[in-house]
Amino acid sequence: MVSIVLDGVSVVVAAPTASDGRSVKAILSEVSATLDERRVAVIGANGSGKSTLLRLLNGLAAATSGRVEVDGIDVGKDPRAARTKVGFVFTDPLSQLVMPTPAEDLELSLRRRIRDRGERRARALELLAEREIAHVADSSVYDISGGERQLVALASVLAVEPAILVLDEPTTLLDLRHRERLRQVLAGLQQQVLLATHDLDLALDADRVLVIDEGRIAFDGQPAAAVAFYRGLMGA
To answer: What is a single molecular function from GO for this protein (predicted)?
Structure first.
């Protein structure tokens, strides 16, 4: 597995005040961890900082201080190199599906690796078939279900063969059937997977779980113990 290092990472942003002045708000504070497990889940309340933590891994967010390293790459210094290692799947797939149809979206992802248009089309259809969604290849992305869209977004990201797959709340918009389908797909991937989630069943599938609370790691350990800690934290 690829080693991911967070070393004293803080993220601070400017925030308006009631008097129209400016203050600073810490999104993450002195977060340190080395993540090299195959499956890592991050759980926490809304606004706790878990999504920001994931966005640090490919430069979608920048650390104010500290160091973020992915497979030896300093993400702050070379985010483009980090993005060759890290694929990112957003909560709402429509925010990243940029082409009219699933097949075209995968073809766009494959453009750099496969120059021939016919070969690119054939490979796109193969990748959709692997996710059991070949039947939507030429449908509008607006006409397919939320679960199908999420699988298309996942296939598009995996098409560039990242070493690490990062997912931000991947089951939020899914019904039970598609949520369970996504869990099965994630379990079978060869990539290292990091995900932020409110879905505690999905978190329990991980090898390690981080609980983020008010921008800090409040618990780091085995899934069952982490979920129990989080339930107690929310109950308190």
So the answer is: ATP binding
